[in-house]
Amino acid sequence: MIKQVSIIGAGTMGNGIAHVFAMNGFKTTVVDVSEKALEKAQQTIAKNMDRLIAKGTTTEEKKTATLANLSFETSLENGVKNSDLVVEAATENTELKLKIFTQLDTFCKPETILASNTSSISITKIAAATKRAEKVIGMHFMNPVPVMKLVEIIRGYATDNTTTETIMALSKQLSKVPVEVNDYPGFVANRILMPMINESIYTLFEGVAGVEEIDTVMKLGMAHPMGPLQLADFIGLDVCLAILRVLHEGLGNPKYAPCPLLVNMVTAGYLGAKSGEGFYTYTAGSKDLVVSKRWRNN
Ligand code: NAD
């Protein structure tokens, strides 16, 4: 029975995951090496609850109860020692995650399930850093976590049925829709999404059409809420490049090779929304979608 949960990493994903667990009644401890990240996460969760109250989808009482379920820790050992489930959402770096899982294996109770929110690192590899590979699983939430319904549940090579069933049931308890997949590069979401984004960048690179034209075709023609180039900016072009490299290397098929334009943009520091410019230009406080001056026709 899962009651006490720990989330490792208080960044974009960690604070969203903590929000969802705490709102659904779980005692939730958020662990981060950065005190600042923990403070920011606490403020973000309170702000997001206020937004839900303003929309009429939750109440002041629910906000108080959610915040009361949350605690914050900088020590990994203290933050996980009583937990029934740990969801790791620290920076996407293989060495870092292997180190965290080795530590979790020693600090957690033997029955604790260890999950990772990684977008692209092999769950099988992460599990092999522990002595409980059958209790290690992928729980890939989508951004923004409180809004997006999907959780991709990734079975590593050694993940057992009990762990998978527990995590599938738990995800439903969080009002999410879990989908079980096997552990191969990119899982399902990024295996399909990233080649589409890469192809949209190639389409621009080869001069087939402009930024707005490509995104409009996919929005209006395929009913996508956001065009692939805008979505790439939102995800971060560095993140897209890293995932494409995982697909290319892991599957050994040249069709996954990242477009040279994507490589150039990342090298030059044009990372999308987070750096202020990618295929579009982002100005703080403005919601207008403005094509980057490098890609305007005039
Ligand atoms: P982020 O950079 O916003 O946050 C990462 C946090 O991890 C930071 O606060 C950092 O201080 C903390 N951290 C680093 N080392 C740590 C350690 N040893 N112990 C505890 N905390 C540590 O990153 P993010 O976008 O929230 O991504 C987190 C994970 O979620 C990654 O694995 C990423 O691939 C995955 N993911 C991201 C998205 C997305 O859209 N951002 C979507 C799905 C999955």
Question: Can you walk through the features of this model?
Answer:
The protein is α/β, with parallel strands linked by helices. The chain folds into two domains: 4-182, NAD(P)-binding Rossmann-like Domain (Rossmann fold), CATH 3.40.50.720; 190-293, N-(1-d-carboxylethyl)-l-norvaline Dehydrogenase, domain 2. 47% of the residues lie in helices and 15% in strands. It has helices at residues 12-23, 35-55, 60-68, 76-80, 94-107, 123-127, 161-173, 189-205, 211-222, 228-235, 237-251, 260-267; strands spanning 4-8, 27-31, 70-73, 85-88, 113-116, 136-141, 150-155, 177-182, 280-281, 290-291. Strand 5, helix 6 (123-127) and strand 6 (136-141) form a beta-alpha-beta unit. The radius of gyration is 20 Å and the shape is globular. The structure holds nicotinamide-adenine-dinucleotide (NAD). Nicotinamide-adenine-dinucleotide binds next to helix 1 and helix 5.
Helix content: 40-55%
State mean pLDDT (0 to 100 scale).
Answer: 96
Find the CATH topology of the largest domain: Rossmann fold
Secondary structure tally, helices: 12
Q: Stretches where pLDDT falls below 50 for ≥5 residues? A: none
The name of the CATH architecture of the largest domain is 3-Layer(aba) Sandwich
User: What sequence of helices (H) and strands (E) makes up the elements?
Assistant: EHEHHEHEHEHEEHEHHHHHEE
Q: Major sheet: order of its strands?
A: 3-2-1-4-5-6-7-8
* Ligand identities: nicotinamide-adenine-dinucleotide
Write down the CATH class of the largest domain.
Alpha Beta
Structural class: alpha/beta
Fourth-tier CATH superfamily name of the largest domain: NAD(P)-binding Rossmann-like Domain
Oligomer: single chain
Total tally of structural domains = 2
Q: Note the overall shape.
A: globular
Number of strands: 10
